[in-house]
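User: Run a structure prediction on this.
Assistant: Running it now.
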Amino acid sequence: MKKLCAFLSLLIVIFSSQYVNAQTIRERITERLAHRQQVDEMELEDGDNQPFNPENATVQRNISYGADIAQSFDVYIPKDAQNASVVLMVHGGAWRTGDKAMNRVVENKANRWLAKGIIFVSINYRMLPKADPLTQASDVALALAKAQSLAPTWGGNAKRFVLMGHSAGAHLVALITADANIAKQQGAQPWLGTVMLDSAAYDLEKTMSSKHLPFYDKAFGSDSAFWKSTSPSHQLSQKTVPMLAVCSTKRKDKPCTQAEAFIEKATKLGTPANVLPVAMSHKEINENLGLTSDYTDKVEAFMRSLGLPL
């Protein structure tokens, strides 16, 4: 009997061990797939850039704002635009890919806001490895300056711009908002406010000093001084235009933690600023903005507070 009990105990240990190992393997596979999905969403922003041609609107494509072919933007102008507000959108793609014509960047946003008389501008900028994120921020500022200068020819108002960016683009618009000198050096005028759609790169020193996705290394390298120079949190030192930081509660790297710290610092400096956590993926935060939803309503409430006719 003792031998039988010992044998049964051994079997239990073996099968329990196998179960634990199988469970661990499943957990690791699940984690790996989630990691790969997040990398894909943040790094591979392509494949859906068929030209979007809205009804009752004029589209001007590939307007140059610099000497490089990548320095261009498209503008979507509602019919009979007059003294119109302008949303200037900066796409994401891990600072190395993406395009201004991507449907997930343009279609739902432009469809909704063109109908409300708002001009929509979507920009390209130079990518890695040709241009690092600090250079890219200068490109965004230069595009803003060019769009402001052209706005009256579209029926727009140069003083009624809202900056918006997703992912890497959210980092770039946050950076030029935090560091006003970047925009001033490129000749941009002040704008009404900034909407950041799901960035986890407000504090690059914190990001790079902890576990992070590998594409951050390609963008920010190993120089801690560069991390600080490209960190909106480190560059923020005075009151800025109002800001809204949208963040995903589904991402494992917890972008809301960085967004909350950045917005807290901004509010202490006197900036009207808020965090909007949403239970959406990184991709959905970009693609779903403009669809009828509580999420769109809350983003528009912020934009309405800036004076946009929403």
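The chain is about 45% helix and 20% strand.
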